[in-house]
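Reviewers of the previous submission asked for a worked example of the structure-prediction workflow described in the proposal, so we include one complete record here. The input consisted solely of the amino acid sequence. No template or homolog information was supplied to the procedure at any stage.
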Amino acid sequence: MTTGITFGLANLISTTATIITSYTPTAGKTIGIYAALLISHGTVNTFGVRILGYLNHSSIILHSIGVSCFAIAILAKAPTHQSAKFVFATFYDGTGADPAPGWSVRASPAYVAACGILMSQYTITGFDASAHLSEETRNASWSAPVGVLTSIGVSSLFGFFLILSLLFSIQDFQGTVSSKIGQPVVQILIDIFGKNGAIALMTLVMVCIWHCGLFSMTSNSRMMFGFSRDGGLPNFFNKVDARFQSPVRTIWLAASLSFLLAIPSLGSSVAFTAATSIATIGLYISYGLPILIGLIYPQNFKKGPFNLGAASRGIALVAVLWICFISIIFCLPTANPVTSQTLNYTPVAVGIVAAWAFGSWFLWARRWFTGPIKQIEAERLGIDIEHPGALEEAEAQGKLTGDVSVADAK
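From that input alone, the workflow returned the following structure tokens.
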């Protein structure tokens, strides 16, 4: 996910720079911008734990008030507006490289529409941050699931409003989709506000995305730290810096792995789509596994204070089926013809991770891995889980172990 967000930002910066300069984007330059962005995210996460809270507030303001103003400004400034028929009933393929036909001809329009689900599915995956940061959240057993649902609802509402404002404000459809800039949204802004106005609004967009990348790395590093603490990663990464109160080692591990994941972009024109697919598929498979286990073994599934009641099994079944569907769709090629430049390398990346994860589990990890330390139980024991390293200190004092129950701990 960190790769998908930050690599997308690097592409936007590279594209926006061409509006009023002679800058020419290349894969190498974009990778360089991407590396600089990862370093900025890693640095803030390392030294700025206290300011992460302030940045979180500024992110909320930018993504709510800022994006709302962005959308309203587009609608208000646009010289003309498209009809509802154009917005809701126009089908555009755009997957074929001239003179090859698009996938709507080679396969079907439904195939193109299914591939288009990727961006929407990818957008709402931000809800997982509520789970990754549960150890730093008060009353996590209730607040985290509420945060998940709230995130999905807010993202859907603002996202739908934003995309409608852009579609209704398109001035020249063919000029937009065939723009020399290579970014339809930027072209829409240029047509409405001119070049300087477009740069100003794109700066707002890019600052918002920078915040997303920053907190994605925050979630990423906390997840890795938690997994290391539970024995799933080497103990080297199970350390919180005493001075900065942050898991510095996993922060830079996240930055390094995210950078490596984007290296194939040097030889692929669909690298962003592939990185987005990998992030989306990987996350949803990780979400789907515990849901599937709960379906198969409901007697072993203990519901928390916040649950869906009698509707939970029906919703869980739909969720598992949907995850299976998107995991297949997002591995398929999105450009025609399929060449070494347009090949979707998502199946390779996801396959390597899956083979390693399942292979290592069945070969050796199942013999010693005892499961996660239960931070919610620690919270009930009065341990301040908001303080980094509190769980480790409790373990060292014998207050908490990976498989202890609340009763045993008391």
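Residues 1-81+164-266 form one domain. We consider this example representative of the routine output the project will generate in years two and three.
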